[in-house]
Design brief:
D-Maltodextrin-Binding Protein, domain 2, alpha/beta, three-stranded antiparallel β-sheet, Arc Repressor Mutant, subunit A, binds 2-phosphoglycolic acid
């Protein structure tokens, strides 16, 4: 059958509205043009598609059949158009992402794999602490945010994509480094270097110790994970960090993870965006990519005790 899409859409409209006149109006055609397209279709089909009863028209059995197929074909075509439109967007999109400072240890690996799949999308990444990420979300400044515990005061979609265990770190020569099952209370005798007040890691650590009834002696406060690690190496105290931030130090033996009862503190990383935000094709692609690929691309560093 050598039919055209034009004939099918004219037929679909006339069959749906059961009127050539209304089909002509809907398609901005003249009534004779509609009749002609349908007559040509009937010639191709070798069957009548409509029957006239007085001034009204009805579909014949062949008309009913062809109506179902026309709808399916036109629906698929529309869907194909949408997919192609979305792909056009993905070729040239821009994406601005905020990430927690600790996420920055693995975010580049995710971004590199994403860029390979969508080379035309320009990505910009800003890494900062939890408090600043919350500001970014409330000001609607970023397309997507990768962070720890999502804030409750903003209406958000939040999907977990990776584990984020928090561990106690010490320099390799520390007296507790060789001990097993260190009781949590024992940590009360140590000094801890801690992150700044807006840090999600710090909030999680403080919440954990408060719930367990352990009061920590805190020493120096630092705004970056890197500074925390250097301070611990230098013997200024112990600290609690995400295991993602110490992958290299564990490999080279520069820091050790203490075997403390109740640890690791179990946290997760979330992909977050405002609930009423319409994600651009690029943002949608990044979201789908992170949720489906993060588990394959990123392995959790292993802490040997
Ligand atoms: P942060 O990391 O400690 O750098 O704020 C975010 C988080 O762990 O929630």
């Amino acid at each position: 059958m050598n039919v055209t899409l034009r004939q099918l859409s004219v037929f679909e409209s006339a069959a749906r509205l059961l009127s050539y006149t209304r089909a002509a109006e809907e398609l901005h055609l003249s009534q004779p043009a509609v009749s002609m397209q349908i007559r040509q279709l009937e010639d191709q089909a070798g069957l009548q598609l409509f029957e006239k009863q007085g001034r009204t028209i009805h579909l014949t059995e062949a008309g009913h059949e062809l109506f179902q197929y026309s709808r399916a074909i036109l629906h698929d075509l529309h869907e194909a158009e949408e997919v192609l439109e979305a792909l056009k967007g993905l070729k040239t999109g821009k994406l601005s992402i905020g990430v927690a400072s600790t996420v920055n240890y693995f975010a580049p690996r995710l971004l590199a794999a994403f860029s390979q799949r969508y080379p035309g999308i320009k990505l910009s990444l800003e890494a900062t602490n939890r408090e600043n990420l919350v500001h970014m979300l409330s000001a609607n400044e970023k397309d997507l945010v990768l962070m720890g515990r999502p804030p409750e005061q903003i209406d958000l979609e939040a999907e977990p994509f990776l584990e984020n265990p928090l561990v106690v770190i010490a320099p390799p020569g520390h007296p507790l480094a060789s001990e097993r099952h260190i009781p949590l209370q024992r940590l009360g005798e140590e000094t801890f270097v801690i992150r700044e007040a807006g840090s999600g890691t710090r909030a999680a650590m403080e919440g954990f110790f408060t719930r367990q009834g352990v009061t920590l002696k805190t020493g120096m406060q630092m705004t970056r994970n890197e500074a925390i690690k250097q301070a611990v190496r230098a013997g200024l105290g112990l600290s609690v960090v995400s295991i993602h931030s110490i992958e290299l130090e564990l490999e080279t033996g520069r820091l050790v993870v203490l075997d403390v009862a109740g640890f690791p503190i179990k946290r997760r990383w979330f992909l977050v965006y405002r609930r009423n935000k319409r994600l651009s094709p690029a943002a949608g692609a990044f979201k789908d990519f992170v949720l489906s690929e993060a588990g394959n691309l990123l392995s959790l560093p292993v802490a040997a005790h």
